[in-house]
Amino acid sequence: MEVVLSPRKMPVVPKASPDVRPDLATYLAPFAPLFRRSTSRASVERYLTGLRTDLERKNCDTIAAAVAGTSTACLP
Q1: Fewest CB within a 10 Å sphere: which of 12, 33, 42, 52?
Q2: Residues 6 or more apart from 46 whose CB is under 8 A from it?
Q3: C-alpha Rg value of the chain to the nearest Å
Q4: Which pLDDT band, with edges at 50, 70 and 90, does 73 fall under?
Q5: Are the C-beta atoms of 66 and 14 separated by less than 8 Å?
Q6: How far apart are CA 3 and CA 7, in angstroms?
Q7: pTM listed for this prediction
Q8: What does the DSSP assignment read for 44-59?
């Protein structure tokens, strides 16, 4: 994922798709019973999506900026 400078010279972080990647959904399926709440399952899926991006720095703030459906409060 490449950071692009906007006309105002501000970094713009491209957004990851809000859709669940099929390969990640297949990987996470056996772990679903460990997450009783659907929000927990969604949070781990979004977090792992963020880890799989091309972001240079992978912390809560950069992942939340790049991955739709996340915030710094909901990441592990």
Answers
A1: 33
A2: 67, 69, 70, 74, 75
A3: 14
A4: low
A5: yes
A6: 13
A7: 0.68
A8: HHHHHHHHTS--SS-S
Run of H or E residues at 5: strand 4-5
Do 30 and 44 meet the contact criterion of CB atoms below 8 Å apart?
no
Residue in this structure with the two tokens 């990987």, named with its chain if needed = 27
| Chain position carrying tokens 């790049």 | 66
* Phi/psi-derived region of residue 37, left when phi > 0, alpha when psi is between -120 and 50, beta in every other case: beta
- Residue 48 exposed, middle or buried by CB count within 10 Å (0-12, 13-18, 19+): middle
Cβ burial, residue 28 (10 Å; 0-12/13-18/19+): middle
